[in-house]
Write a structure and sequence with these properties.
18% of the residues are buried. The protein is of the alpha+beta class. The protein has a three-stranded antiparallel β-sheet, with no helix packed on it. It is built from three helices and six strands.
Length: 137
C-alpha cells in the first residue's frame, strides 16, 4: 500500500439505527433519514454510495479532460446504479455507471471514462471487490 503524503479531506458522519435510522455529517450539511430499500421515506446506503461515486467520477472525468485539454459539455452526467444482491447467503453489491458526455466523440468519451475509472477514488476502492460496469451512453 502507498504511503499517504497528505490528507485532503475527511468526511465525518454519525449514523444511528442502521438502515432504519439517521445519518448526519459533522458540519450538518448532510442530515438524512434512512430506510431499508422499498420501506419508508428515507434514503438508503446504496443511494448514498451511488450519489457519492457518481459525483466523484464526474470530478475524475474533469481532471482527466483538463490534463488532455478537452473541454467538457456543461450537461455531462453520470447515472449510477448500485444493486444490493444476494450471493448464496451473503449480501453483496454490484454497480453500473452510465456516463453521458454529449457532443464528445464516442472514442474520446470512452478514453476519458476509462482514464477516470483508473483515477476515481471510489473506482479504486471497488476495483476487484464488486462487479462494476462502466457504460458511455
Amino acid at each position: 500500500m502507498n504511503q499517504i503524503e497528505k490528507i485532503l479531506y475527511t468526511g465525518r458522519t454519525h449514523t444511528s439505527g442502521g438502515r432504519a435510522g439517521t445519518a448526519r455529517s459533522s458540519d450538518g450539511a448532510l442530515d438524512v433519514a434512512l430506510s431499508p430499500p422499498g420501506f419508508g421515506n428515507g434514503t438508503n446506503p446504496e443511494q448514498l454510495f451511488a450519489a457519492g461515486w457518481s459525483a466523484c467520477f464526474l470530478g475524475a472525468i474533469g481532471a482527466v479532460a483538463s490534463k488532455l485539454k478537452v473541454t467538457l459539455p456543461a450537461e455531462r452526467t453520470v447515472d449510477a446504479e448500485v444493486d444490493l444482491v444476494m450471493e448464496g447467503e451473503q449480501y453483496s453489491l454490484r454497480a453500473r455507471l452510465n456516463v453521458s458526455l454529449p457532443g464528445i466523440a464516442r472514442e474520446l468519451a470512452e478514453q476519458l471514462v476509462a482514464a477516470a475509472h483508473q483515477t476515481c477514488p471510489y473506482s479504486k476502492a471497488t476495483r476487484g471487490n464488486i462487479p462494476v460496469e462502466i457504460n458511455v451512453v
